[in-house]
């Protein structure tokens, strides 16, 4: 599933530059993750870098509104980064 930034976000600016898919942007009051771009870093890293750098525990969670298998996340990675080779 894609990830979700909760209201615990303190806008520390740590997550946005770490996202290899450019899925994180500033929303109206906190950062937001675009589920169409989030692959939970599959294809890039072993774990989501936004979760790793976030200084507040449980601020970034798996989004229950966007469940996806690892295979679906991999397919999304391929489309985002290798669509010109398909």
TrEMBL record:
InterPro entries the record matches: 4Fe4S_Fe-S-bd, 4Fe4S_Fe_S_CS, PSI_iron-sulfur_center, YfhL-like
GO molecular function: 4 iron, 4 sulfur cluster binding; metal ion binding
Gene3D superfamilies with a match to the protein in the record: 3.30.70.20
Superkingdom of origin organism: Bacteria
Entry's transmembrane regions: none
Listed GO CC annotations: cytoplasm
Keywords: 4Fe-4S, Electron transport, Iron, Iron-sulfur, Metal-binding, Repeat, Transport
Domain (4Fe-4S ferredoxin-type) ranges: 1-29
Entries under PANTHER family matching the protein: PHOTOSYSTEM I IRON-SULFUR CENTER, PHOTOSYSTEM I IRON-SULFUR CENTER-RELATED
Protein name: 4Fe-4S dicluster protein
Species per Swiss-Prot/TrEMBL record: Enterobacillus tribolii
């Amino acid at each position: 599933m894609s990830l979700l930034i909760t209201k615990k976000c303190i806008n520390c600016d740590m997550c946005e530059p770490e996202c290899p898919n450019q899925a994180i942007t500033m929303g109206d009051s906190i950062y937001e993750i675009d589920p169409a771009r989030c692959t939970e870093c599959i294809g890039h890293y072993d774990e989501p870098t936004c979760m790793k750098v976030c200084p507040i525990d449980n601020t970034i969670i798996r989004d229950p509104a966007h469940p996806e298998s690892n295979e679906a996340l991999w397919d999304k990675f391929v489309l985002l980064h290798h669509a010109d080779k398909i």
